[in-house]
Amino acid sequence: MPSHDDQGAQPGGRGRLSIVGIGPGGLDQMTGRAREVIAAAECVIGNGTYLDQVAPLLGGKEVIRSSMGKEVDRARRAVELACSGRVAVVSGGDPGIYGMASIVLEVLEHSGLAIPVEVVPGVTAATAAASRLGSPLSGDFAVISLSDLLTPWEEIERRLELAFRMQVPVVLYNPRSRGRKDHLAVALSLAGRHLPSETPVGFVKDAFRPGEQAVITTLGKAGERIGEVDMHATVIIGGRGSRIWRRGEEAQGIITPRGYERKYLY
Amino acid sequence: MPSHDDQGAQPGGRGRLSIVGIGPGGLDQMTGRAREVIAAAECVIGNGTYLDQVAPLLGGKEVIRSSMGKEVDRARRAVELACSGRVAVVSGGDPGIYGMASIVLEVLEHSGLAIPVEVVPGVTAATAAASRLGSPLSGDFAVISLSDLLTPWEEIERRLELAFRMQVPVVLYNPRSRGRKDHLAVALSLAGRHLPSETPVGFVKDAFRPGEQAVITTLGKAGERIGEVDMHATVIIGGRGSRIWRRGEEAQGIITPRGYERKYLY
Questions:
Q1: Which residues contact B179 (CB under 8 A, 6 or more apart)?
Q2: Mean of the pLDDT values across residues A141-166?
Q3: Which one of A11, A264, B73, B121 is CB 3.0 to 4.6 Å from A127, fit for a cystine?
Q4: Distance from A155 to chain B by nearest Cα, in Å?
Q5: Global pTM?
Q6: Measuring CA to CA, how many Å separate A171 from each of A133, A187, A233, B263?
Q7: B12 pLDDT tier (thresholds 50, 70, 90)
Q8: CB within 8 Å of chain A, chain B residues 202-231
């Protein structure tokens, strides 16, 4: 991948293409590089939700709004425009995790064009949600999307089964949506075959956005609260060893120990 | 978890504890919030490598350097000092992924103290490395550390086996180290039982740091290049469907398609 110091693979060309992770919500969760690349862009393309998230940064730029479901068109348009100008495709969270990086690079690959391209990492939903729950991941973990738009449900179930057998925390993206309401229930049920019912489960909705909500429950009780999970949530199912940190009766967070207790007393 | 708007759980108390992800390397890979929290801190504690990474931000602060292997002491010191002042524990990448969040929160939990605490997410090595390789993750993936300091090797192998059976990309942290030189070879060999030899493998050393290097190879050939991997590297083994994007003979990156090709022609 060309570094972001490359200046135009096309002789005299000023086109460049950036695929920018804008983080989970507030502008303060963006990296300096993400802000710098958007500031330098002449044209910014993205899904409306993500353009709105960075609206204060878009003054004076050509802004192209694209809908959910139009990712291939969005990628094509971006590559086309990047032949002759500085284009930034904005992607929520990190662009390489259920974001725009893969489709934009596939379109670029198919085009055969030598446009300098940069993927700008951002804070992804897994780590954003984890930070609002304490330290539910800590070590090894798996990430699975429950959306079957692009992956068959049988394959998702197969992966879930193996992930829960790993006994490590599992982060679920796209946990619920119209028409896919029961996928989360099935996932929790699969988890329950491999992990104790006291295993902590966290839901974080709208992390770092207005209306943020974090729910801490257990595998045994998560079914009662499943209605509180929507498409804007990230679900983290703990692994063996994960526990709820309480002060008195109140849950403070989820901690998955890394194993220092095997070596030290504290 | 208290939000970062909470003002002192102890009546009149000014202590607060932040566990801050400082990202993979350059200061421009830090979030605005991470910079803000460090700027507000009176005392910053961390491993020397990470304090050096944010050295320009530490002027006028009490800085406490702590070594590798002293994480429990570091956490205890941080909690103690946070009783009466603003303390930031710096953690490379994201603090909730092989970072300081879990041990600091465990020490806080054991102390029973009601100190406001905030975990500040950052760009973790998995996404930093992925961004330098193109889009090797894209969808579902697993993250496993090959360090057996805190987890027995037999358990690591068990998890690797299940992860490779998931057939999704797998990110390996701490791939090699003095005394653990053969863990990566074993991991690659395990992968080879479940994935074709053409499966792309990427190594990124010192992502976003001076001397950054990215190597793109395949499962079948990775053994020849294993000497190029050290403790500063992140290894990404592709999943089924991952491929190398080439322009002519030159590898441009690794792309793991998300599945748009099942629905669209492009």
A1: none
A2: 96
A3: B121
A4: 9
A5: 0.95
A6: 12, 11, 11, 26
A7: low
A8: 212, 214
